[in-house]
Amino acid sequence: MLKPKSCMGGVLTALLDQASGLAAVSSFEDMQPVATLDLRIDYMRAATPGKTIIAEAHAYKTTRHIAFVRAVAHEGDVDNPVASSQASFMTTASGRPGMGNPMERTKAIKDLPSATKEDPKGDKS
Amino acid sequence: MSAKSDTEAKVKEALARIPFAKSLGIYPLIMGDELTLVLPYAPHIIGNPMLKALHGGAVGAFLETTALVQLSMVDTELPLSKPIGINIDYLRRGKPQDTYARAVIARKGSRVANVRVNAWQDNVASPITILHGNFLISSDDKK
Question: Given an 8 Å threshold on Cβ–Cβ distance, is B64 in contact with A10?
Fold first, then answer.
């Protein structure tokens, strides 16, 4: 079987997007939810197998609706990064009431449509 | 017939080498030599439950997988290519439904390949996300 090797780029993409998104959300005065506009990532080296990856994100500029975020993914030493990214985010709330209310969020998560049960035609993984 | 099953086997093998693709439930659709990957909707790939929007990271990883699998079809013997730099533009919100992606290798050199990937949901002409990036092609002398 496959030996656990270095993690795939996509995992870092998801991690950096999440970290950058959270930095963007918290950069607005009233914690606005955001959507990614664009994300560019540089992959500097392969991650060490089995090591935890840390993502640090900094929203270095925020306007009324847009946040600009830089992020670094590393294994403990920021000066030896695995990947780095630059992203921009846009607020999505547009005055929706209750966006920041955790109870409403919990309800929204519960109300998510469940995945269709039909079998994917391809792999049965 | 045989050409299709050949391509299908190659693609499935490439996908099996990416555990993260498996966890996202990505599966292929093949028409001749044209490859389309499908990211089936599942509640765990939602990024914003209030808007029911797909997570940008999940969609981004899906597009990256599409690029890697498309590149692996050129030579299935080699290990997967590695991303050098990618750029993802999110054009529309990902709705809670299946997403499709197709990759085009714009240029393939001896070491680096430039790939573009489009992802769409309802209409191919209205992509929800676009990726373009450079990938380091694995060669025999490495690893």
Answer: yes
